[in-house]
C-alpha cells in the first residue's frame, strides 16, 4: 500500500526539479559551473516565468490523470494528444518544448495509429521522452508481479518509444522507484537491481547486446565515475545513468536535483528523472517550500494527486 504523501513526493519531486532545470536547458556544463543554478529562476532559452515546468511534467501528469483501475491505454495516449490540441496539463497555456519522437508519436495517434504502435521502434528512437513521464506507473503496478510490471511498462513506453532500450530503461527506473517506495535505501536498491534486472531480461530472451548497453548500471559502480564521465544529453541511457549517479552521490533532495540541473544540456529532464526518485526517497517535506510555492498550477497538481490515489 502507498499513501498520498508518497504520490505527492514523487510527482512534486519531478515537477519542482523540472522547473529548476528549464532555465538551464541546452546550457553547457562549463557555463553552469561558472554560474550554477541554485534555486528557482526565470529565463533560459525558452524565456519562461519562474516555476514553469516543461513537457516532462505535462506528460507525467497526463499519465497520472488517466491511470485508472480499468487500465485504458487508448485513453492515456489520447491524453497526450489532448495536451497538444488543448490547454490540458500545460503550465501556462503554451507548449514551449516537445521532443521530436514524442511529437511524431502524438501525430501517429492523431491519424489513428494504435497506441501500442505509435512510438518509434528504431535504435535512433531512444530519446528520454518516455523515461521522463513514466514514474506514475509505479503506483499502478505496485502490487503486481514482475511479468505484469514489465508488460505494463512496455505498453506505456511504446506510446512514444518502442525500442527495447527505452523499455528496459523505464523498467529499471520503475523497479528502482518500487524499492524506494517499499522503504529500501538507495544503495541497496541499486545493488539488488544489478542482479535482478539482467537475470530477468535474460529470461525474456532479450539480446545480450542490449543488456550490455546498461553495463554501468548492471555491472559497475556508477558512483565511482567522475562527473566528466557522466553525460546529460537527451539520449535515454545518458539520462538514466545521470539521474542514478546524482541520486547515489547526494544525500538530500535539493543537492540531488541541483546536481542534475547543473550537468547541463537536457537539464530539465535529467533533473525531473532524478527528482522523482529523490522525492520518493526523502519525502515531500524534503522539497523546499519556496520552490513548491512558485510552481505553475500547483493546486491542479494537488488535486490530480488526490484523485490518483482514489482511482
From TrEMBL:
Organism, scientific name: Rodentibacter rarus
Keyword vocabulary terms for this entry: Hydrolase, Magnesium, Metal-binding
Cofactor note: Binds 2 magnesium ions per subunit.
Cofactor requirements of the protein: Mg(2+)
InterPro entries: ADP-ribosylglycohydrolase (IPR050792), Ribosyl_crysJ1 (IPR005502), Ribosyl_crysJ1_sf (IPR036705)
Residues binding Mg(2+), per UniProt: 54-56, 266, 268-269
Similarity comment: Belongs to the ADP-ribosylglycohydrolase family.
Protein name per its UniProtKB record: ADP-ribosylglycohydrolase
GO molecular function: hydrolase activity; metal ion binding
Amino acid at each position: 500500500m502507498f499513501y498520498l504523501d508518497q504520490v505527492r513526493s514523487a510527482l512534486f519531486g519531478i515537477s519542482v526539479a523540472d522547473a529548476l532545470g528549464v532555465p538551464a536547458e541546452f546550457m553547457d556544463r562549463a557555463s553552469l559551473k561558472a554560474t550554477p543554478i541554485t534555486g528557482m529562476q526565470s529565463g533560459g532559452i525558452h524565456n519562461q516565468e519562474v516555476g514553469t515546468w516543461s513537457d516532462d511534467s505535462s506528460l507525467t501528469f497526463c499519465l497520472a490523470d488517466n491511470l485508472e483501475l480499468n487500465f485504458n491505454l487508448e485513453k492515456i495516449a489520447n491524453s497526450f494528444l489532448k495536451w497538444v490540441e488543448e490547454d490540458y496539463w500545460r503550465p501556462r497555456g503554451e507548449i514551449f518544448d516537445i521532443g521530436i519522437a514524442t511529437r511524431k508519436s502524438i501525430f501517429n495517434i492523431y491519424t489513428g495509429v494504435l497506441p501500442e504502435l505509435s512510438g518509434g521502434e528504431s535504435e535512433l528512437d531512444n530519446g528520454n521522452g518516455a523515461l521522463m513521464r513514466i514514474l506514475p506507473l509505479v503506483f499502478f503496478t505496485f502490487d503486481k508481479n514482475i511479468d505484469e510490471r514489465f508488460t505494463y511498462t512496455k505498453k506505456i513506453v511504446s506510446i512514444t518509444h518502442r525500442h527495447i532500450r527505452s523499455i528496459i530503461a523505464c523498467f529499471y527506473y520503475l523497479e528502482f522507484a518500487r524499492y524506494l517506495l517499499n522503504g529500501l535505501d538507495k544503495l541497496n536498491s541499486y545493488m539488488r537491481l544489478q542482479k535482478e534486472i539482467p537475470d530477468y531480461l535474460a529470461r525474456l530472451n532479450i539480446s545480450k547486446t542490449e543488456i550490455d548497453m546498461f553495463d554501468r548500471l548492471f555491472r559497475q559502480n556508477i558512483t565511482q565515475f567522475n562527473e566528466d564521465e557522466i553525460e546529460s544529453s537527451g539520449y535515454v541511457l545518458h539520462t538514466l545513468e545521470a539521474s542514478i549517479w546524482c541520486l547515489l552521490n547526494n544525500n538530500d533532495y535539493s543537492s540531488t536535483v541541483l546536481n542534475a540541473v547543473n550537468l547541463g544540456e537536457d537539464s530539465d529532464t535529467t533533473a525531473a528523472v532524478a527528482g522523482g526518485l529523490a522525492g520518493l526517497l526523502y519525502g515531500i517535506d524534503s522539497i523546499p517550500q519556496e520552490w513548491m510555492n512558485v510552481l505553475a498550477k500547483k493546486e491542479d497538481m494537488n488535486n490530480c494527486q488526490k484523485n490518483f490515489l482514489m482511482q
